[in-house]
Amino acid sequence: MTNNTSGIEPQEYKVLIKPDDAVAEILKKYTALAKAGFKVDDTSREREQHAATEGVLIATSPLAWSFADYPSNGGKFPEIGDHVIFPRYVGFMVKGNDGEDYWLLNDKDIIAVRNGANGA
Hints:
The chain is α+β, with helices and mostly antiparallel strands. The protein has one domain (14-113): 10 Kd Chaperonin, Protein Cpn10, Chain O (Roll). It contains two helices and six strands. The protein has helices spanning 21-35, 42-49, and strands at residues 14-19, 52-60, 83-87, 92-95, 101-106, 112-113. It has a six-stranded antiparallel sheet. Strand 4 and strand 5 form a beta hairpin. The mean pLDDT is 79.
C-alpha cells in the first residue's frame, strides 16, 4: 500500500499518479528548455506527442472506475500501489504539499498496468 503524502485528494473520476523518477527528470528538463525559449523540431514534437509515461497509482477518487458505461473486459481495475502506464499528454502535473510532482488525470486515461512492478 502506498501512502499519499501529497495532500491531494482526486475528485470525480480522477486518479493521482507519482511519475517514475526518470520520467520526472526528463519532464523537468523539457519544461526548462521550453521556458528558456528553445524550440523543438517537428519530428521530436511528434515523437513526444505519442509517448507514454509511467508511475505509481497513489490515490483515486471514490468515483474512479464506477461509471456504468465503462467497458467490462473481465480484468481488474488498477489499485493503489500499481505501476501504471498512461499517455504523456493527458491530465496535468500538480505539485503536492510534500514538494513532489504528481499527475492528476482521468481514470480512463490509464492504458495499462505493468505486471510485477508492485510485487504482483
